[in-house]
Design brief:
The protein folds into four domains: 32 residues, no CATH class; 98 residues, Immunoglobulin-like; 105 residues, no CATH class; 105 residues, no CATH class. Helices cover 16% and strands 42% of the residues. α4 packs across α5. The strands form seven sheets. A five-stranded mixed β-sheet has the order 12-13-11-15-14, covered by helices on one side. The chain has five helices and 25 strands. It starts with a strand and ends in a 13-residue tail after the last strand. With 378 residues, it is of the alpha+beta class.
Length: 378
């Protein structure tokens, strides 16, 4: 390196010539110092004396900036390394900087980070070591605080027309609520949670954190099981700005009948119907013929009918003989007598046994599934 005509203002030694900064680049005031004087006060790393990491003791979230971030942490060593790396400053003159860190767990809430840095400055290799204590402060995030305080903004009530929702419908509604919350959480919404679920004699109540979630859960339940829902607002308080705050109740009404139920419509005498769908007009399959059934538009999904049982109530019995296109002979599953009953189109004439339902409407052959071939759950 050639000598310049400049001399170090501290020691008087000649200073090695250095490239002039380009147009618009800041001029380094220390460039006039010789290497010995420059490195006397040189710090490769600017590190804080101590770092505090605020973490939620309930969910593991970490407070960054002005918000809580879900990281799902239980071992906070990786979090401590990340926080330290973001807090450190590397000298602008350093090149080819590399570093490694050795965490030391002092106690449950303190991690001492031993950091070693290497780099190149003014063509010379430099090494520096710093120790940064990281304090883990256990707190409660806003979300967990709300959950602990039983906060909710919306209620989803699940009821059914002239019946009580089944266990499967209640479990399905709870699963839908969980799925909706998980979807909202995946988008970064930390205000999404189910506060409480409780069963009553009439059905299910679910308290959720936002009106948006309540509406989405109600819509999904209706999509899955049919029926309808309505909403009603209740004024509960005013916020700090004087705005009115409402709590919304979404009342889900499941259909009178459900898929897989067997009913005997009162508006005709053509025999029982296995319900296939209750979305829109009730649709099903006649057990006497195998033909499609659809309730009239004016009755929708709730025609007047007698309940005879469900697909699960069917029993396997022996198919004795096929008498003709409209009749077969089977054994009564209770008395074991041979009885002649209607032969629906979906029955396999070569089968040895067939599922049947015995009810007050008589003995009828059931399809092997709720949706016989050629039908569609609309």
């Amino acid at each position: 390196m050639t000598e310049s005509r400049e001399f170090c203002p501290r020691c008087g030694d000649a200073v090695a010539a250095r490239p002039e900064p380009g147009p618009g680049e800041p001029r380094d005031p220390d460039r006039v110092l010789c290497n010995d004087c420059y490195f006397e006060e040189f710090d490769l790393v600017d590190a804080p004396e101590r770092i505090e990491v605020r973490t939620c003791s309930r969910c593991g979230a970490v407070h960054r900036g002005n918000r809580w971030v879900d990281v799902g942490a239980r071992d906070y060593t990786d979090i401590a390394v990340e926080e330290v790396s973001e807090a450190l400053g590397i000298h602008m003159d350093a090149e080819d900087v590399d570093w490694q860190v050795m965490p030391e767990q002092v106690d449950e809430t303190t991690i001492r980070m031993h950091c070693q840095f290497t780099g190149v400055v003014r063509g010379a290799g430099v090494t520096e070591e710093v120790v940064v204590p990281v304090k883990i402060a256990k707190q409660t995030c806003n979300r967990c605080g709300r959950i602990a305080g039983d906060y909710y903004a919306s209620i989803v009530q699940v009821r059914a027309d002239e019946r009580t929702p089944t266990d499967a419908e209640i479990e399905g509604a709870e699963e839908i609520a969980t799925e909706v919350v998980e979807e909202m959480e995946a988008t970064g919404d930390r205000n999404a949670f189910v506060t409480e679920t409780s069963e009553t004699d009439e059905g299910l109540n679910m308290k959720v954190s936002t009106n948006k979630i309540g509406k989405k859960v109600a819509q999904r339940i209706v999509q899955a099981y049919g029926g309808s829902f309505s909403s009603a607002e209740t004024l509960v308080t005013e916020d700090e700005d004087g705005n009115e705050v409402y709590r919304v109740t979404f009342a889900v009404r499941l259909p009178r009948y459900r898929q897989g139920e067997i009913i005997d419509p009162e508006d005709d005498d053509e025999g029982p119907v296995l319900v296939r769908s209750v979305r829109g007009n009730l649709k099903g399959t006649r057990l006497t013929t195998g033909e499609d059934y659809e309730a009239a538009h004016e009755v929708g999904n709730a025609p007047e009918a007698r309940r005879l049982g469900t697909r699960e109530d069917g029993e396997e019995t022996t198919l004795v003989t096929v008498e003709d296109e409209r009749a077969v002979q089977v054994l009564d599953p209770e008395t074991y007598e041979a009885k002649t009953i209607a032969r629906p189109d979906y029955m396999d004439p070569d089968a040895d046994t067939v599922p049947v339902l015995k009810s007050r409407a008589g003995l009828h052959v059931l399809p092997e599934t709720d949706e016989p071939a050629g039908t569609e759950d609309a």
